Amino acid sequence: MKGNNYFLYCSVISVNLLSFTANAGFPWTSPFLPKLNGHVDPDKNPIPYGISVLEESWITTMLNVGALCGPLCTGQISRKIGKKMTLLLFSIPVFISNIILIFANTVWHFYTSRFLLGVGVGCVYCIIPAYVAEISDVPNRGKMGLCMSVMNLISHMCVVCIGPYVTVRTFACMSLVPLILFIMIFITFIPESPYYLVSRNRMLEAENSLKKFRQTSNVKLDLIEISNSVKETKIEGSLYDIFKTKVVLKGLLLTVGLMLSQQLCGAQPLKAYQQEIFQSTGSNIPSEILVMIVGIFQFIPNILIVFIVDKVGRKILLLLSYFGLLISLVTIGIFFYFQEQNFDVDSILWVPVASSCLFMASMKLGAGPVAWSYVGEVFPSNLQIYMSSIVTFAMYFFGIIVTFIFPIMFNFIGMAWTFWIFAICTSASIVFIIFKVPEIKGKSFVDIQMLLKK
Q1: How remote is the C-alpha of 198 from its chain's centroid?
Q2: Using 50, 70 and 90 to split pLDDT, how confident is the model at 1?
Q3: Measured between alpha carbons, how far is 293 from 296 in angstroms, rounded to an integer?
Q4: Whole-angstrom Cα distance, residue 87 to residue 258?
Q5: Cβ proximity of 129 and 148 under 8 Å
Q6: What dihedral do alpha carbons 342, 343, 346, 351 form, nearest 10°?
Q7: Integer Cα distance of 349 and 351 in angstroms
Q8: Residues 203-219 pLDDT 10s
């Protein structure tokens, strides 16, 4: 007989306290770059000069550079010490990153801090989707996997609502609070993934882990199911042979394709430069207020998807999401085209805000969270962390390119064509989802492997 799910919910929330702190690095540039590039007041800008455009680009990009490094060692470390200890280990660079920001007074301090935070981010996106998928039962796996998206949205809102009104040092101190809570709760109360324990033949520990997550002493059937899943989905051989295996190759192409789609719609640079984009529209409403408005609109789809993902299905949500992204990119591109052609746009200054609201809401409806649920579910259990590391590396590699060239693009080809190029890429993503992305709603890990083999 199944117990209640309260401990599972608490476990997922606690592990995502780490993603809360790590994810804050993405929108961090929106409220804090304007402080660094235009002020000499030490209360607002700890650097004794306004930073240049190139330094601004490097501060933004260093997060992704660090995130490239995280996945390179995450797989091997996780295999040796487990997912739980790996998450605790990689919380250290996130902690050091915020400590550096408290005392930062040169641009190199910001580079170092952003790089270390990126290393932690790379681990978070490798480990947390897999860990959450493995500790959850099948009926709850979809909604549990989306808790990271909800926590990331709360993190985003905290940054854009609090950031404009506090100093860099103050916000860094505030960011340490959820991180310390994560370390205290996770190390004390939350057990290791039962899948990892079974794969290491630590059956008694796996049984005790399941008893805590299921809140029942009768876990024999679950333990047998996990043992069979580990055996049936296990793929062995050399690295070359593994990559020739159809199920692994298809899973890798599927997830890398979803990550590429996620980046080529422009999500990272739009989040990083959102406040500066709104400043360029000429609106009378302060840009930091507009950023908050856009952030609030993300809550509805982000909460909604948690309740409907296991009913509607992943593929439908992905398609709805990307059609919303396409409409918003085309629309905001049209606004900036009119502005660049010196048309009077005073009567349609609401368009960029409305389009940004649609973009961020659509992103939270599927393109962001659902893509990560595929990463946590489509790979064989013994290769999960290695494949997740490759996918995460690919995502941040694409993110570095797109984020770094974004300011260059709108300087050379204009804001309108920058958004239209993102729209063209989004159209290609829709075609990819229609023809290449399978539905995995309600399927066990074994069922998903069989689906990919067909």
Answers
A1: 28
A2: very low
A3: 5
A4: 24
A5: yes
A6: -100
A7: 5
A8: 888 888 888 888 888 88
Rounded to the nearest angstrom, the gap between the alpha carbon of residue 171 and the centroid of all alpha carbons in its chain is 21
Number of Cβ within 10 Å of residue 307's Cβ equals 12
Q: Which two tokens stand for residue 427?
A: 């159209």
Per DSSP, the three-state class of 111 is helix
Q: How far apart are CA 297 and CA 171, in angstroms?
A: 23
Report CA torsion sign: 287, 288, 290, 294.
Answer: positive
- Other Cβ atoms less than 10 A from the Cβ of 122: the count is 30
How far CA 46 is from CA of 55, 94, 104, 202, in Å, comes to 15, 20, 7, 51
**For residue 318, which of 436, 219, 202, 212 has the smallest C-alpha distance?**
436
Query: Among 61-70, 141-150, 171-180, 182-191, whose mean pLDDT is lowest?
Result: 141-150
Rounded-to-integer distance, Cα 31 and Cα 272, Å: 9
Residue 237: count other Cβ atoms within 10 Å of its Cβ. 10
Read off the tokens for 58: 């490097």
> What's the whole-number mean pLDDT along residues 426-449?
85
- Residue showing tokens 């950023």: 291
